[in-house]
Design goal:
Helix content of chain A: over 70%
CATH architecture of the largest domain in chain A: Up-down Bundle
CATH topology of the largest domain in chain A: Four Helix Bundle (Hemerythrin (Met), subunit A)
CATH class of the largest domain in chain A: Mainly Alpha
Order of helices and strands of chain A: HEHHEEHHHHHH
Radius of gyration of chain A: 18 Å
Shape of chain A: globular
CATH superfamily of the largest domain in chain A: GntR ligand-binding domain-like
Oligomer: homodimer
Distance between the termini of chain A: 32 Å
Number of helices of chain A: 9
Strand order of the largest sheet of chain A: 1-3-2
Number of domains of chain A: 2
Chain lengths: 223, 223
DNA sequence: GGGGCTAACTCTGCATACAATGGCCGGCAT
DNA sequence: ATGCCGGCCATTGTATGCAGAGTTAGCCCC
């Protein structure tokens, strides 16, 4: 996805700016994930375009992308709305996570490189700092980053393409459902890292499953 | 836009006609799945627009969708190309199928309605006809339909959204890798239907896993 | 007072027009 | 020849304009 990093942008010199559609898509994702755009809220192309200082065209293209990712719902000729998530849909999401996160963890354990593991550990460090500072917003984003990074380690690009938006949807879910269960979560992450680091596929898969189950249980209690 | 509307639209109450972006997206998918657009081939917006008799705008929006679905690859300012699939990427796809198809089958066994089961059976019937007629193209599409329908039965909309494009990618893979292993495949499908019909979640999951494993093995032999 | 008709407005869908970037080709110097 | 430089062309990126679907509100008629 064009959205993130491009830490390795091999593009031309300097100026090479991202297409506006990507800027808009990223911004829309942020607005939705941060809650500034409420679930069910209608998105008016023209208004968004003016707010972001672009024409409607990049906005429309971004809308197609966000729609494919599940962040918004489009009804032909009737408008686009920020996706909402019913309890049923949340369970649906957990069901899929329960299938994909253990797979991602297993593959990560199989093929992670030391460098990548370092990045994972670094996220964990930043999470500790954020925890101490009580910065919950930051923690939510780090949580997303952590899970995305695990999928990156899987080295399965098809899985990555599916899972990264899924992880973001999950982040959105937590933001809207209730507080985050920060403390538990990160010790589980620690366990997962160790399993991946050890290259223990079975254990990594099991830890990931356990983690998602715990997240679901937590969601159910709060829901 | 010349008037081609009359073909399918009752014209009575509003709507009725699909947005061109959807028409274009569907057509592009077909062209790619059928092989009329070869992997790696470059897609020129203007050319596509003219061929389909529309402006570039619907084409561009369709491109965003297809890109999100993984059928094409877009590099900013350098063009869009029909996605190709290396052996590694094919294995990646199978890995994800191996996670999602058993899940879909399990959920289908849990919540399928008789009506839906009828539709599944009907696909199987059509497949028998196509098999007798030796119509391989038809069989490939029916295969896709079958797997998509199983996911539909799962009643998990999030899963459906992910899995349906995945199934189409898999169809594309078979078309490009080698002939389809029609005979085996459909007895496996029969077994899967029976498990779903019986509401046996464990068995359905197991049958689905077995089916995907067999497909992968077949692919590996031919690859 | 209520049900529908209609007119006006809003917004989406599509097309056309314009800008800017990247690739290509030929010329020039080395 | 080889390699760099500069302009041209093909193609993508972005903006604007226009037509028609959808919605809403007021009006008429019952």
């Amino acid at each position: 996805m064009a959205g993130m990093s491009d830490s390795s942008s091999p593009d031309t010199l300097g100026a090479a700016h991202l297409p506006l559609r990507d800027v808009v898509a990223t911004e829309l994702r942020r607005l939705i994930l941060s809650g500034e755009l409420a679930p069910g809220e209608r998105l008016i192309e023209d208004r968004l375009a003016q707010q972001m200082g672009v024409s409607r065209n990049p906005v429309r293209e971004a809308i197609r992308v966000l729609s494919a990712e599940g962040f918004i719902e489009v009804t032909a000729r009737r408008g686009t709305f920020v996706a909402s998530m019913s309890a049923v849909e949340a369970m649906n999401l957990f069901e899929v996570r329960l299938a994909l996160e253990p797979l991602g963890a297993r593959l990560a354990a199989r093929s992670a490189t030391p460098e990548q593991l370092g990045q994972l550990a670094e996220i964990l460090d930043r999470a500790r700092v954020a925890t101490d500072a009580g910065n919950l917003d930051s923690l939510a984003e780090l949580n997303t980053e952590f899970h995305s990074q695990v999928f990156q380690l899987s080295a399965n690009s098809y899985l990555i393409g599916m899972a990264v938006p899924m992880v973001k949807r999950a982040q959105w879910l937590f933001r809207h459902s209730a507080a985050n269960r920060a403390p538990h979560s990160w010790t589980e992450h620690q366990d997962l890292i160790e399993a991946i680091q050890a290259g223990d596929e079975e254990l990594a898969e099991s830890e990931a499953r356990h983690h998602v189950l715990a997240a679901r249980a937590s969601f159910l209690r709060l829901g």
